[in-house]
Design a protein that fits this description.
This is Pentapeptide repeat protein. The chain crosses the membrane at residues 51-70, 76-96, 108-128, 134-159. The protein has helices at residues 55-71, 75-95, 100-105, 107-129, 134-158, 161-173, 179-196, 249-257, 371-376, 393-406, 437-452, 456-463, 467-481, 508-511, 519-531, 544-557, 563-579, 586-603, 611-626, and strands spanning 198-199, 218-219, 344-345, 358-359, 382-387, 413-419, 425-430, 485-487, 493-494, 500-501. With 630 residues, it is mainly alpha-helical. It has five domains: 1-54 and 197-257, E3 ubiquitin-protein ligase SopA (Pectate Lyase C-like, 3 Solenoid), CATH 2.160.20.80; 55-196, no CATH class; 259-380, E3 ubiquitin-protein ligase SopA (Pectate Lyase C-like, 3 Solenoid), CATH 2.160.20; 381-509, no CATH class; 517-626, no CATH class. It has a four-stranded antiparallel beta sheet. A two-stranded parallel ribbon has the order 1-2.
Length: 630
């Protein structure tokens, strides 16, 4: 049972080393000055808790702040403070790079340097701004310097230099104070917070709840804040949050308010952030990392999610209507259950095309409940092989066949080819669940690049008469010549790139491991499909039915074609028969063109005098013409 500390006075308590605080309840507790360093606080409840400095530390910090502010009221003291600060900071920063023993030995040097700096400051300030009392310089300039020096010594022991420098630089960029004063101030405040403030440094705060908690002067440095809830948290801007996603001011504002509408979060690291039920409509997350984030029930309507990383992200119940998901990085661990989405865009909008590649394609059609997850599912287990220059179809065919044969456990199967720009192509292959896609991709491109460097004659020696390689080579070549895509599959699905995938051409054999159906069964299916086509009205001019019937007979009776390739060829005839029901429809024409290309690939390598080659040379051009393909 989780421990209950709710409403208790826990000021200054040391919880370091406790093993029993998972799920503990600290709601409404006073935890000022408490130490939770490196403690497991998963699912702990700190809602409405009061963290930060205890009273005596707060008073000390207030005095120093007054001194630092008052020093800015005198021109002469500003000169003193700047010179002394520069000397002390320069030496202390060097010292802080070493260990505690080295820092101690520099104590004397720092003291002497500070004294010399104050004397020089007195002389220069008298010249620049008129005479001032030694007491004024020492009190107003020396006390803050001395306290800052103590902060430097503390930092030399406990680190945090990177966080201090970055915070100080941010204050300088904002035009608040000079860099030297900012560093001194940050060092002192860090020493104060680390000594007297509430510390969650390196704690595990996964799923912890800080709703409406007061967090001024609290140290969250290097803590695991995955899925922590910060809604309505108070004074988080005054906490130490280095090495967490809270470092960016816009992220802190987002997690506190839950309002990110129309905001820009491009390229930010938001890994593990909790944005449950947040308003993110019209927000931009281009190139951002939202992996493992909690986006349950979040409103991402019209959000720009181009190249957004969403590995392990929970989008359960989220709204994605109108979102732009170009090249977004979802995986099979991305949770999409119950996603609300009426339509989606596959590309970012432009002035020329404000609604790029909408899905569903028809603007009057909308996804029904559950449709979006089914629509996007094919991407989960695909290997995407993108070729961006000098595409070599033969090298692609050989490299993919080699990869499939070397990794039968991956069950590689080509599902799509898409032309992307001039001489660029994306080859997408389905893989078995759990396949190491990074390793497969690296192995493929190593092989592809070596093959690409070979001469045409050397490549031909590797190909010999392997019709699977020849078929795939022809398919890649066709995909490069067509405006958009070549694809395969016996079911209608949708490609994430926004291209509708349709057809029934089968390239499982290329992937190695696809089983060949019974030849008689396939032939019977072809006959059924042909019988559904209308007869030609002119006996002197054979139509699609008659030409395909002749092609079926030529394939079945061929003595030169092995049974496995007869089966593949007959499947293409069946695809042509199905497309022949609506031969002028664009999608059917694309299916027909793909099937004809496949048949040409299968026939390649047969003896020139083979009867099937002669039949193919006669029938395929006539079939293409009836489909309006030339």
């Amino acid at each position: 049972m989780a421990l209950d500390f709710s409403g208790q006075n826990l000021r200054g308590r040391n919880f370091k080393g406790r093993k029993d605080l998972v799920g503990a309840n600290f709601s409404y507790a006073d935890i000022r000055g408490a130490n939770f360093t490196n403690v497991n606080l998963r699912k702990a409840n700190f809602s409405h808790a009061k963290a930060g400095l205890q009273s005596h530390w707060a008073i000390s910090a207030a005095i120093v702040t007054v001194l630092l502010v008052s020093s800015a009221l005198s021109k002469s003291v500003i000169v003193a403070l700047l010179i002394a600060s520069l000397v002390v900071i320069s030496v202390a920063l060097v010292a802080s790079r070493y260990n505690w023993a080295v820092a101690l030995t520099t104590n004397l040097v720092l003291t002497i340097a500070g004294s010399i700096a104050l004397i020089l400051a007195l002389i220069i300030s008298a010249v620049v701004a008129g005479p001032v009392s030694i007491f004024s310089v020492v009190l107003v300039g020396g006390v803050p310097i001395f306290l800052a020096f103590l902060g430097f010594i503390y930092i030399a022991v406990f680190g945090s230099r990177g966080a201090i420098i970055s915070t100080a630089r941010a204050r300088v960029e904002a035009g608040i104070v000079p860099f030297s004063i900012a560093v001194a101030d940050e060092c002192f405040k860090t020493a104060i917070i680390n000594t007297g403030g509430t510390s969650f440094r390196m704690a595990d705060l996964t799923d912890a709840n800080f709703t409406a908690a007061t967090l001024k002067n609290t140290n969250f440095g290097s803590a695991n804040v995955t899925h922590a809830c910060w809604l309505q948290a108070q004074k988080l801007d005054f906490a130490r949050v280095y090495a967490t996603y809270l470092e960016k001011p816009q992220v802190r504002e987002l997690v506190i308010t839950g309002q990110g509408q129309n905001k820009n979060f491009d390229d930010l690291s938001l890994r593990g952030v909790n944005l449950q039920a947040a308003n993110l409509a019209d927000a931009s997350f281009i190139g951002a990392d939202l992996s493992e984030a909690n986006l349950q029930d979040a409103d991402l309507s019209r959000a720009k999610l181009k190249q957004t990383q969403l590995d392990g992200t929970d989008l359960t119940g989220a709204t994605l209507t109108g979102a732009y998901i170009e090249d977004w990085g979802i995986t099979n661990t991305t949770k999409l259950h119950g996603v609300r989405c009426e339509y989606i865009f596959m590309r970012l909008p432009t002035k020329e095309d404000p609604d790029p590649l909408r899905k569903p394609d028809h603007k009057k059609e909308f996804f029904k409940d559950g449709d979006f997850a089914d629509f996007i599912k094919p991407i989960f287990d695909t290997l995407d092989l993108y070729h961006n220059q000098g595409v070599d179809p033969r090298a692609i065919a050989i490299a993919f066949k080699n990869l499939a044969e070397n990794h039968p456990e991956a069950e590689l199967e080509i599902v799509a080819m898409e032309k992307r720009g001039e001489d660029k192509i994306l080859l997408r292959a389905k893989t078995a669940a759990g396949s190491d896609k990074s390793q497969l991709s690296a192995e493929y491109f190593d092989d592809y690049n070596q093959l690409k460097a070979l001469s045409q004659s050397q490549q031909l020696l590797l190909v010999e008469k392997d019709k699977r390689i020849i078929s795939l080579e022809n398919m890649v070549d066709t995909a490069l010549k067509q405006p958009k895509f070549y694809t395969q599959g016996d079911t209608n699905v949708s490609d994430i790139s926004g291209i509708n995938i349709q057809g029934s051409s089968n390239v499982n054999g290329i992937a190695g491991g696809g089983s060949v159906a019974n030849l008689g069964t396939i032939s019977g299916n072809v006959s059924i499909a042909l019988n559904q086509l209308p007869d030609s009205p002119d006996a002197e001019k054979p139509g699609i039915k008659e030409l395909l019937t002749q092609l079926q007979e030529a394939i079945s009776q061929s003595a030169d074609l092995p049974e496995t390739e007869k089966a593949e060829a007959l499947e293409q005839v069946q695809a042509l028969a199905e497309a022949g029901k609506n031969p002028q429809e664009s999608t059917k024409q694309k299916t027909a063109k793909t099937a004809i290309t496949m048949l040409k690939g299968i026939f390649t390598g047969l003896p020139a005098i083979a009867s099937l080659v002669e039949a193919g040379n006669k029938l395929l051009p006539a079939i293409s013409k009836l489909f309006g393909l030339g």
